[in-house]
Amino acid sequence: MARMHLATREKRINYLADQWKDELFSELLLRGRDIEEAALALKIDQTDGIVYFVQCGDGGPIKLGHTRHDINKRLAALQTANPFLLTARRTIPGSRRLESMLHKHFARDIILGEWFVATEELAAMCGGTPTPAEFLAGGVSNA
User: Fold this and answer.
1) Full-model pTM
2) Cα–Cα distance measured from residue 113 to residue 13, given in angstroms and rounded to the nearest whole number
3) Within 10 A of 56 (CB to CB), how many other CB atoms are there?
């Protein structure tokens, strides 16, 4: 019985540590740290695949995902089910944990599943892709 209690306690400690890391990660991003820099500072595994940002059209929603395979193959698979042009805006080495932390950070901007509104903050992290307002105003060029 005591052994089971110890395992439960360890799970609780790990859960709290993960929650703390999530909050600290978001704080680092809000203070202007790059994703890779924040992940490195928190010792988040960056060797288990690729975290990618794919945008639907110009100024459209952005998919935040993870793959262990070639990003071009993943993009082709996503494109098959989408009538609008998808563009890979940024890829970084990363794990599902990093992807999950980014999903939590941008949770307020979620549309559905892994698709997010192209806010200024998210667009900046993707390399300056235009937000819908910027695109409609003609103020940003992807050329």
Assistant:
1) 0.77
2) 28
3) 19
CA torsion through residues 72, 123, 104, 33, sign? positive
Tens digit of pLDDT for each residue in 89-131? 999 999 999 999 999 999 999 999 999 999 999 988 887 644 4
Q: Which residues of 25-48 are buried (b: 16+ CB within 10 A; e: fewer)?
A: bbebbeeeeebeebbeeeebebee
Answer yes or no: are the C-beta atoms of 62 and 53 closer than 8 Å.
yes
Distance, in Å, from the CA atom of 59 to the CA atom of 78, rounded to the nearest integer, reads 18
Residue 15 covered by a domain: yes
Instruction: Please report whether residue 143 resides in a domain.
Output: no
Task: Write down the residue that tokens 């793959």 correspond to.
Answer: 67
Q: How many domains does the chain have?
A: 1
The one-character DSSP state at 130 is P
